[in-house]
Design goal:
The chain is an alpha+beta fold. Helices cover about 40% and strands about 20% of the residues. The structure holds zinc ion.
Length: about 450
């Protein structure tokens, strides 16, 4: 069987033009399911041909326009035509666009607002950046080439350059104007490290965090330290994006690093930040797992282990309720039952898991002591329906910095490349790209002590 695909142009003046775009051939015999409908290559050819036909008609219409001179408002005349090759989502298109000259003063007029040296449409740039945010450049280039009639940008280097450019634009974008005023906002700021590919530095510091309103509106932000991206500016914009006003009640959380507290002050967050419950819970969880691995080969050791786990749990309860500024009591009580795990011979032969447990507990004590002025009554906040810490989920954090940048994959990043890709990834999470391909992760539920530990 065969068809002719004809585009019929419908004009406002009632005129109509038509153009035959493509001949489609398909078998009428359906004994093989592979013959059902259009093939991928037919589909790609179809949209590419339709795209070129539409662009040709558009440029014809465009050339008939006579823009006014910006200086003397006299209508312009066509000076000459310039060929353009533009990569679109549906193939590379070729078109001629007129350049205009004023009949009065002789001034030149472009007749369009395209950026200088424009080679691709914004939509193609965004789709390329979105795919690059989700997978390595080489893989993204392959997927796009497979599915779309893109004959430009199938080269990973082109894709990288395009993605970093989009990242730059996203970084410099103004805050959204649509934000409704937020009554309360929780802000979290954290830092992590990724591997560097540049000489003289092994790791790059990444600052990342999020803002969330009481109504659940959420934005994430991230930047690599010592780049052109100012994390303070990103924080200010994120706050504006979710509707911060002078009346908004703002609560900030960090993991206790003084550098992060300075960033918050520079971003205009003047209320002292609280210590993030998540970071406390993570340390307690580590102590608990270590206690779980203690040898319980005798009933005596079984009881001792249960007592240790109960002590860690008690410590968690006391911190949660704002009653612990250090772990000294816990350390004393656990020290009392520890001899049970020490071997008959000597202290030096004691179980390694016991040493790990002791290290973990001492670390908790140090952490609590150094951060005691930043501890808050988490239980009270939780009962009031307020956040107790960061709500940037592990999934989101992994997506932003780990999944493609972690050690196991041996990914090494340039400072600028990682920073600008982060801007694209944040835009993906924040749903700033086209509809339906936006927000990847849902806002986390307000965490209680148990859920926070599991996270
Ligand atoms: Zn003029």
């Amino acid at each position: 069987m065969g068809w002719v695909l004809r585009l019929v142009e419908t004009g406002v003046d009632g005129s109509s033009r038509n153009v035959d775009v493509m001949v489609i051939e398909c078998p009428g015999d359906l004994s093989d399911i592979a013959d059902l409908g259009l093939t991928l290559s037919q589909g790609k050819q179809l949209v590419a041909l339709v795209q070129q036909a539409i662009v040709t008609a558009q440029s014809r219409d465009h050339a008939a326009r006579r823009p006014e001179c910006r200086t003397c408002t006299t209508p312009c005349q066509v000076k000459d035509y310039r060929p353009h090759q533009i990569a679109t989502l549906f193939g590379q298109v070729v078109l001629r666009l007129p350049r205009f000259r004023c009949a009065g003063c002789g001034g030149a007029e472009a007749g369009h607002g395209w950026p200088a040296h424009c080679r691709s449409t914004p939509e193609l740039d965004q789709v390329r950046a979105q795919f690059s945010a989700l997978m390595p450049y080489r893989v993204a280039a392959g997927v796009l080439e497979l599915l779309l009639p893109i004959d430009a940008g199938s080269d990973p280097e082109t894709l990288r350059a395009c993605t970093l450019k989009v990242g730059e634009d996203l970084r410099d974008a103004a805050p959204a104007e649509t934000a409704t005023a937020a009554a309360a906002i929780t802000l979290s700021l954290d830092s992590t490290f990724i591997r560097s590919c540049e000489d003289g530095q092994r790791h790059l510091e990444v600052r990342l965090g999020n803002v969330e309103t009481s109504d659940g509106a959420q934005q994430v932000f991230a930047a690599v330290a010592k780049t052109d991206t100012a994390i303070e500016a990103l924080i200010r914009r994120s706050l504006a994006d979710v509707g911060k006003t002078v009346d908004t009640e703002l609560t900030a959380f960090t993991d206790g690093c003084s550098g992060l507290r300075t960033i918050l002050i520079n971003a205009g967050v003047t209320e002292p930040p609280g210590l993030d419950w998540f970071h406390i819970a993570m340390r307690l969880r580590h102590a608990e797992t270590t206690a779980d691995s203690l040898p319980v080969d005798t009933p005596e050791r079984g009881h001792a282990q249960a007592a240790i786990v109960a002590e860690v749990d008690r410590l968690r309860w006391r911190i949660w309720n704002g009653k612990a500024k250090d772990a000294k009591v816990t350390l004393e009580r656990i020290r009392a039952v520890m001899p049970v795990f020490q071997g008959e011979q000597s202290d030096r032969k004691r179980d390694p898991s016991l040493r790990r447990l002791w290290t973990a507990l001492r670390e908790i004590d140090r952490y609590l002591t150094s951060q005691s002025s930043w501890l808050v009554n988490y239980a009270e906040r939780h009962r009031a329906g307020l956040r107790v810490g960061t709500s940037i989920t592990e999934g989101t954090a992994n997506f932003l910095v780990n999944r493609r940048m972690n050690k196991s994959q041996q990914m090494r990043w340039s400072r600028r490349g990682a920073d600008l890709l982060l801007q694209v990834r944040c835009a993906v999470v924040n749903g700033k790209f086209g509809a339906g391909f936006g927000r990847l992760f849902k806002a986390q539920e307000n965490l209680g002590p148990e859920a926070a530990i599991a996270a």
